[in-house]
Amino acid sequence: MKKLSRVLLTVVALMMLLPVVVGAAAPYATYTYSSSRFTLNSPEAYVPDMVVDSEYMGLDVALDDPRDLFVAPDDCVYLVDAKNARIICLDRYFKFRFQIKDFVNTHGVPDAFSDPSGVFVNDQYIYVCDSNNSRIVMFNLDGSFHKVIPQPSDDLFEEGSIYKPVAVAVDSYGRLFVVSSTTEQGIIVMSDDGGFHGFIGAAKVEISPLEILWRNLQTEEQRELTLSYIPTAYNNISIDEDNFIYITTDAPSDSAQTQAILSKSSDNAPVKKLNASGADVMRRN
Known about the structure:
- The protein is mainly β and 285 residues long.
- Helix content is 12%, strand content 33%.
- The chain contains four helices and 20 strands.
- It has helices at residues 2-17, 54-57, 209-217, 220-225; strands spanning 31-33, 39-41, 66-71, 77-81, 86-90, 96-100, 102-104, 110-112, 116-121, 125-130, 135-140, 145-149, 165-170, 176-180, 187-190, 196-200, 234-239, 245-249, 259-262, 283-284.
- The strands form six sheets. A four-stranded antiparallel sheet has the order 3-4-5-6, with no helix packed on it. Strands 9-10-11-12 form a four-stranded antiparallel sheet, with no helix packed on it. It has a four-stranded antiparallel sheet with strand order 13-14-15-16, with no helix packed on it.
- Strand 10 and strand 11 form a beta hairpin.
- It starts with a helix and ends with a strand.
């Protein structure tokens, strides 16, 4: 028995002398793209530090389809809870402050969101993309209603086009840059009274010589059955302190890329004019 005890003590001592390896596999695979657009495994770019769920936030109703998140200048965090048709405001520690759900509009009529998708906050207002209602709604920082920004109207919009704002960014001059999920002409530039200023950053459509040749050989009926070549619609937008606009798209050719499409504004040229392709100010990260 004593001999067995000595053996066990020896084994324990040896184990204590061995280096301790602490670590765990990442919960997902990290990858990047090669120059040929192939995915390549890479070291973990980041790993989760904490999980913030509905219980941690202190919500009485759990999140359902959270679509957008924005950190305001005061470090408060705003979430778009689409299925519950509300905007949730959290403090810097991710604890519940208030929510925006039902409100009374300009006409004194009870109102609510329908499938909200995007939120932007500056040091004055909260801007909410109320997608299915085809509008952007502005609120004061305490969550009280300010006004509705209606759908812009202009001859530049294609006939029968549908306005469905899903993301918005506001520059230091108060101009709104709106991503509409059904608009292929580019980013909509407008004022907070609904005035339409134009489009910027329309994606360039590229067709290979082989595709051009094939379309020339097709009959009219065959052309009608083939896909139309239209610019890619964007899906999200952000802006930095220098008024550079950053946009994202789901298009395979732009995967994992963000494009800066607007140069810094100045008092003499509030919006820099782009050519048809936006090549004069386009850059890729």
